[in-house]
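Predict the 3D structure for this chain.
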Amino acid sequence: MANSSRDNILAGIKTALSNFSDRLPEKPDMQSAIYNLENDKDPAIVFAEQFMARKGVFFYSESLAEFRIQIAEFVKRKDFRHIYVWENELAEELQGSGFQFSVHDRGLSQIECGITLCECLLTRTGSIVVSSKQMAGRRLTVYPPTHIVVASTSQLVPDIKEGLAFMHKKYGQNLPSMISVVSGASRTADIEKTLVMGAHGPKELILFLIDDVDVKA
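Done. Predicted structure below.
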């Protein structure tokens, strides 16, 4: 029986080789986009759909004033006591939000929530791009159990190619030493195929997307 199976396999290989074509495959198109976004859909809506499909919590704010109200209500509902904000621009915006936060790294072991900005947002995958050149650094995006990201609609780009171009425009040739693409909260099912949240980073990922109209005004 074993010999018969082996003979069948060898015969199949010989047949395949005898029909092998000398024609080389066409060169792949490395310029065209692999995925095309739906032209009739708002990029913010596409991003939100993909982001929430990966268990992210999404808030849309039409103005900075609305953002402050939304994030204050969220923090109050979660009852966070140890919140860290290290980016000066963001800390200034949150001053009137009605909750306390630390702008230094003392007592970081008690952290419950880190609030940061980001480099850009990848619409097609609902991903967030962060880097080591942000004042939040590496720690505030991976260490806290809950990571809140604040972004604007002008940071929406189709995919990773446009995301890197976006960063090249900002940093030129001095790109950050670490560029990370975050797609949902940290999770793993490596152990007995049981899903564990927060294995290598935050258990919860929240995004507040602010419309640029008010930001630019």
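The first strand starts at residue 57 and ends at 61.
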